Structure formats: structure tokens, C-alpha cells
């Protein structure tokens, strides 16, 4: 397995990052001006990396498919960002954040990376506050924290239900400063369609201008991908409509190994599907589980009465409700990690206790939070604590202050008032822990090609804890990549500008235009969405929250067939030389159709249950995930023409600073 | 539900556009407005016609990408929503719905309902930031306590999603609400004070150069803003600007 | 500092300042006119003072004329500029859903007020200037008595003029209903007093024009 060198620095865990920074090569400021870096994607990772690289002095070209870097889907993250600040004095520390993240990831992440993440988490908060990110504060003017699933401390910083937005706008503002200075050249409404490899090194990209359809060549000394996750392979997800795997997949096809594709996070608290027309799912922040209690009726007759509309959830007596998370996991209760909460919801719904027409919904109930907060308020204000109506009203006000925008969003979508009746929620695809394999320097298996944020695989193992994605994106972009990339670029100070007039660029461009021509001239009979929806159904039913050998094998062959059908029968209107969303979508779905198969292949190969990957064959008697020691490695897949031919490389995971235990939240 | 749609179709930036009528049937009240357009587009593709181009991405009201003028209102008739959060239950069977792109000289049409909003980005380039380097070696985040009221007000201003509904609704196509939200966010925080003078002068200068109209305080922007950004921000920016002009 | 009159916000500010000045003037004008209802003698005395005191005539009057002219010209300039900022208009635009009629039609209410002012100047100001500075009669007397009150009453005999004045004041009310608070917003006054101010603005915007209408009708019907 020498082919995968994770380049983890030697020495004690806590000193690795510092030692590494002390030893790696640097590029002096005058030479940085001679070096170009391409950053694809402008979310938290890409945006912060572009800003920081430009500030260090590199010439940055940044690309995004949206009309502005500010619209990347990091903006939709609601709940918060973790940092081991220990402002609450509740026993938090770098080690504890590291520990929680490794345990939360079901012991499938790299120790050294996670420790570094926990270490720099502290800087992130300082940095963001200095940039003017308006985090929530208490009455003393200091930063407030909330607690998130899977941990026992309050370490999550937040800005109401729009933390991702505020952090992204912070990174966007840092980018704006550099764009204004001319250090970042921004290419919005551009989509990367290939990586160009010259002499074994990533030296540029081929991009399509989505407005004019023009195919462009862009060269650089290094290419950074911050292009997010691939959850849209499931068609329905909480991802943005445009989120795609294309950049990552093209990189994979050019030699970057794809790691752990089957690790997908299915988030427990999303608004349930309402019908066939559904184009996307909406998340309700996990922070709601701090105050909301999840339940289904205890008795089937109540379930039926609810479904036919003759009974309201508020009419079900306390003793006839099954607060199944509190019942199964008394220690963590409603705050168990996402994978556990999602599976538990699926278990109840599969058993027939789902509370909407489709049978795929559970309640998230705030009634007891209203009373709890209300009593407190009544006490503080010296009002009658026994006046139920008053107490409820006071409590609702507190909840409105904390989650008002989420409640409003729910009401707009579902047309039910969540202050009066419990919310209905169901799990939905939300994040992909898997991604492009990177070493400790965040470099892929292609020299000069980097992957950061959700696009890489590195820090979350088999399951990501709440409020850790924002942390990882910003850690990679602000504080890790800008250092480690220097180690590589130090050899490029005399290279000079990279020409786009080379055989490699010609070939890559030809490759792109041929694919586009093929798609646009296909004259098939079915739309892109038709194929995307069918792929989504296969993924959700056979590679979703619970997987088994038979389903996965079927999925592999069905996806391959669907892919063939797609290339035969897809229909794309318009031309390639204009704004053509169908054409852009077709390219993305074509890549999802390849990735989907690799996903299923990876899930089939991984004969254990870990985090977001749950194999029905491998579970304990209580239905909990059963991890297996022999699978304590990263699966990194090498592209060999077709997904079925992908070759597996293993990176063994060693745990020297943490004891691998049963992951229990009971 | 059956509906008649009157949609602005325009092939490209330099082409002439016109309103074209479409009929859609079997619309469910639970659909979002964009899902209704998806249905129309699937029909058009099947018929071999070009689908209606519109901007959209997150479909949960936060990215600010979606932008259409529905029946004479930015983001349609419902309040405090973007058009992706607008649901068909806001309409009745048999309704005729006008769908037009944002109209402003500073937001030229790219195609159909898609407009170019990079003017907003350029305003931000002119000063929508705090000049702090990203070394991570800033002071501790809790070193400067910030009064909760100010922190909350800064947050409220910062929730602007940059969709451009304010410009689209304003009879003068003024961008004051958008610009003032950013100016206010930083004006309310101690971190933003150092560059306050230059920031407001530069951002307003850029705003004027982009060709946005002048604010006449009609308040339409505040009503149509999907995030409820307050007019107070405009007043604050006016103050900041006057202060800065006298100083600079 | 230069930008203060060339920038969008600077122009807004200038518009608001001239508006404040005009609103104060309006109040003063009203205060003098209402005297004509209660005490013709005091009205005559104050009128004579205003018409002959050097500071009013040679300092305040030019400033006032400048203020009026500036407010109008700036209003038209901004309107033209604002129209340019939307080259293609909407096929359907439901302005009533988000703003008041008054706020969207300041140019029309303002335009009508301009016409009114021209007529008002022809009626009162030009004859006054003629008498004082062309004929050179600074006495303010007619047949040995102050002439101001009787001149005022003469003007309000024809019903068409009374009607025109009333209409002018209705437009003034509409203009003020938006303009009063808009001016405060433009200079950056939006704070805890804003709600109170809005109430006061309404009282002012309706009260003053109604008062003027009352004066016109009073003189018409009591003559």
C-alpha cells in the first residue's frame, strides 16, 4: 500500500501540526507573485482558501458556477460551528473536541487530521469575529454557545439559524477585499469540466462559461478543489440544486483517488417529502433537538387515526407516546449523533409508526420546551407560574427568539403552525463524508491537485458531528491549505507562467467538447431530470440508510444500465453556445451516474456497519451498528475506465491516542 | 389547479424579449413555485421547445439566487419568502400569473428570467469587508464584548441574501437597502469602526456608478425583502455617509 | 465633502434640507395667514413687517426662493435619473402592495404644487413686488389704512380661485404625507422617536393644508 502516503508527521499528536509547519518549505513573498493558483468552488473552504492565498501574495483565479461566490451552498448551514474555546468552562478542550469527532466518526477518520482540526478551531472563531461575523452573544456581550448532537459540552458558536450564511459572507468579504485589490480574479457562472495534467502535475483546468457556452483554458501552478459533496446523486437531498460531483469526478478520472464514497450522512431532521413533484428537501437545524423531543405514537390505532385525520397529535396523551430516542439512548436522548437518530426514525417508520400519509415522518415536539422556558420566564418576571396559557406564551417567545426563522420556514413549506402542533420530520441526504483522498497536506494523489472542505474525505470518518462541517471547511481554507500548499509550490518559483498552448490542454479541451457535442446532439426522448430521478430512487432505496448485499448488487447493475440508457436516450434542448441549464445538468448527472456505481461498490465491499454506512447484515442484537476491526482503513478507489473496474487501495488507520471502543450513546 | 402563465422570454442579452403565454395543469398546492416551473419546463422539453431559464440554487430561501417578479411583486405575493419558498397554495385555480425578470438598468437580462447581478458584487468589492488578514493571529474572540442589542442588529442587517428584490421592487431601482445592510452590519460592530469612513464613501460611490436610482423612501424594498431588512439601515447609512463626508 | 452634492445620498440630503426649510416656512406662512381669520389688524401689522423689514425682504426671501427653486429642480433631476435606472418597465407592477400612492407619486403632487405656486405668485407676490419696488410705494397703505387684509379678501371672491387653491392644498397634503417623514429618514433620523414623529408628520401633513383651505373658504364665504 505504499502508493498511499498520508505524510502524517512524526512526533506526539499535539505537536504534529506545529512541527510540520516548522519544517515544510515556504515560498518567499516576492516569489509568491510569480505563482498562480486556481481555486474551484467558493464555499467556506474554497472562499476562505482563495482569500488567504491571495493575501499571502499568490495570484488566485477563483471559479464558481453560481452568479456570485456568496451563493455557494455553505450558506445554507444553519446550526453552528464547533470550536474548543471552552468559554463555557464545561470541561472542553482540544483533546475533547478531537475525541468527540473521532468517536462521532465511528473511528474511521485520521487521528492527526482531526487533532489539527480541533487545534485550529480556536483560530477560526477569533478570525471570524475580527472579520465582523455577528455571532450570537449573551447579555454580557460575550459569545454564546449551544450544544449539538453527540457531545457532552456546549462548544457550538452560532448566529441564530444562519451560521453558515454568516461565515460564508465573512469569507466572501475576505475574498472581496482581494478581488478589489486585483489579487483574485473571479470567474462566476463558470463550471470546471476537466483538470489538466502536465508532466504528472495539475497545471490547469478547462472551464465552461455558463452564460456564453464558451470553453476556456486556465492554467496555474496548482489547482485546489473546494467543490463540496455529492449528495445530489440521491436526487432528493438538502443540497442546492446545482451541487454536483463533476469537478471531483473529473479529478478522479485524471488520477485522484476517491475515498469512502459510501459514507453519506442522512440528516434526521428534515421536512418530509410531500409528493412526486418534490425537487429538494429542506433541513431543520439539528439545534432544534436541543429543545424538541422526538416521538411517534405508541399504538398503531393512534397512528392510523392520525393518518386519516381523525386525531391530532396534541390529543395523544403523554403515556401513549413513544419518545424512542429517550427510551433507547437515555444518556444522550434526543441529542444522539445524526446517523443514530436517522436510523432510529427509519426503524420506527418501517415498523409502521410513521405519522404522515406516506408513513415516513416522526414528530419533533416543542410543547415541553415551551412550558420549561415559560416557567422560568414567569419566575423571572414574577408572574403566575401556574397559569398554563401564560407560561406557554412566554415559552413560545423564548423559542421564537432562538429558532424563529426555522419555525417560519417550516410553516411556509408545510402550512402548519409548529407553535401549535408538533413539527413532522424525516431523515434526508445531507452531507458526504467521503470524497477525494488527500494526504496530511490536503494534496490528492495527483501532485499539485488539492481538495478541501466537503470535497475531500479527511476529517469526519464515517459520520460527521453537527457543526463540524463549517469548522472543517474554514480550517482547511484559512489555516491548513495556505501553509501546506507552499511546501509544494516552493519547487515552482522558477517555473514561470504555465502555457495553455500545449498538447495536454488541447487534449483536455477536446475531451470536454466531445462530451458536450455528444450530449447536445443526442436527440433522445427523455429529459435529464428523468434520469436523475431514477438514479435517485435507486440510491435512496438501495444505498440509503440501511444497505444489504443483495440491494447493493442490484444497485450496481441498475445504475450501469441506467447510465447506458442515459447516453442513448437523453434529450437536451438548445445549443452548446448559449446559456443552457439542461446541458449543464446533463453533464452533472452523467458524472453522478458513474459515481453512484462506485458508491454502491464501496458500500458492498465494506462488510461492516460504521457511522452513516449501515449494513443490515452487520448489526448488534439491539440493532446498533457493528464495526469490524478488519475494516479499520480508508478505501481509496483508483479510476480504471469504468466504475466497476476501480481498484481499491487501503490506507490503514492507526489509533494511538484514542482507544477504539464500542461507540455507545446509551 | 390550472393556471395561465405569462412569462418573459428573451433569448439573450442583446435580443428583444416578449411575454409568452403558457398553460399549466395539475398543479398541486403543495408545490413550490419553482417546482411548478419545473413541471412547465419538463413539458416544454418533451415538446422540443426551450425551457424557461431562471436562476435558482438552494431552494430554501438562503442563497439569494432565485429572482423573479411574480404578478407585479418581487418573489410573489407571500411576504418574507423568496420565490423558491413561495408555494402554489398562495394562488387559486384559474389564475393568470405574470412572471418577469428583475427590471433595472444595473441588472441587465442574460436570458429569460435571469439577470446579471454582478453590480452587487462590485459594490462589495469597493468596501464590503473588514481588512483583517487571515493569519488567525487576531485577538481572542471575547476580547471585545459587544452589546447584545448591537450584535443582534448587526446580525439582522447581515442576513441580507443579496437577491436584489429591493432593487426590483423600488420604483427607482435603488440599491440602498442592499448597500445599507452591509454598511450597517459593520457600523454596528467595533471591528468595523476603523474603516467606517472609507467604506461608506466607496460603497456609495460604486453604487452610484453602477446606475442604480436614488432612494425616495417609498419603503417598497423593506416590504418586499424576503429577509425583512429594515429601513433603519438606510437611515443609518445616510448618517454614516454624512458623517464620513464631513470627515473625509 | 465634494461628494455630498454629487452622490445619491448627498442629493437626498440636500432634498431633505430644502424640504425642512420649506416646511418651516409653510408653518410660518400659515401662522400669519390664520391671523386674518381672528384678527385682521394683527394680520395687517405682521404682513407689513414681513413685507418691509430688510432682513426678511433681502435675506430670507431670496433664500426662500432659492429653496423653492432648488427643491423643484432637484426633484425633477432625480426623477429623470431614477427613470433612467429602469429602462424596461414591468408588464405588471403592483406598487400598491408595498408602498403608498403618495410615495410613488411625489413628482405629480410636486408638479401640481409647482403650478399652484406659479398662480400664487401671480396672485400675490408679483403685485406686491410691483407695488413696493417698481411703483416704489413702501407705505403698505391704501386710502390711509393697511391694504393687506382687504387685498387678501378680494382674492378669495371668485369661486374658481378658491377651488384651485383648495385643490393645491390637497396635493400639498399628499406631498407632505410622504415628504415629512421621508425628509427625516433621508437625514438619517430613524430611531425610537420615529413612530412618534410619524404621527406628528401626519398631523402636520393634513393639519396645515386643511388650515389653509379653511382660511380660503372662510374669506370666500364671509365676504
Automatic annotation (TrEMBL), chain A:
Cellular component GO terms held in the UniProt record: plasma membrane
Membrane topology: Peripheral membrane protein
Required cofactor names: FAD
One example GO MF annotation: flavin adenine dinucleotide binding
InterPro entries: FAD-dep_OxRdtase_2_FAD-bd, FAD/NAD-bd_sf, Fum_R/Succ_DH_flav-like_C_sf, Fum_Rdtase/Succ_DH_flav-like_C, SdhA/FrdA/AprA, Succ_DH/Fum_Rdt_flav_su, Succ_DH/fumarate_Rdtase_cat_sf
Localization in the cell: Cell membrane
Enzyme Commission numbers on file: 1.3.5.1
GO biological process: anaerobic respiration
Catalytic reaction list: a quinone + succinate = fumarate + a quinol
Chain ranges of the Fumarate reductase/succinate dehydrogenase flavoprotein-like C-terminal domain: 532-665
Keyword check for Flavoprotein: yes
Electron transport among keywords: yes
Keyword vocabulary terms for this entry: Cell membrane, Electron transport, FAD, Flavoprotein, Membrane, Oxidoreductase, Transport
Family to which this protein belongs: Belongs to the FAD-dependent oxidoreductase 2 family. FRD/SDH subfamily.
Protein name per Swiss-Prot or TrEMBL: succinate dehydrogenase
Native organism: Spongiivirga citrea
TrEMBL record, chain B:
Transmembrane regions: none
Gene Ontology molecular function terms on file: 2 iron, 2 sulfur cluster binding; electron transfer activity
Origin: domain of life: Bacteria
Co-factor(s): [3Fe-4S] cluster; [2Fe-2S] cluster
Gene3D superfamilies: 3.10.20.30, Alpha-helical ferredoxin (1.10.1060.10)
Pfam families in the cross-refs: Fer2_3, Fer4_8
GO BP terms: aerobic respiration; respiratory electron transport chain
Domain 4Fe-4S ferredoxin-type: 151-181
Family as reported in the entry's similarity comment: Belongs to the succinate dehydrogenase/fumarate reductase iron-sulfur protein family.
Protein name (record): Succinate dehydrogenase/fumarate reductase iron-sulfur subunit
Organism the protein comes from: Spongiivirga citrea
From TrEMBL, chain C:
Transmembrane segment boundaries: 55-78, 106-126, 159-180, 201-221
Residues spanning the signal sequence: none
InterPro entries according to UniProt: Cytochrome_b-558, SQR/QFR_C/D
Entry's Gene Ontology cellular component terms: membrane
Keywords noted in UniProt: Membrane, Transmembrane, Transmembrane helix
NCBIfam families on file: sdhC_b558_fam (TIGR02046)
Descriptive protein name: Succinate dehydrogenase
UniProt source species: Spongiivirga citrea
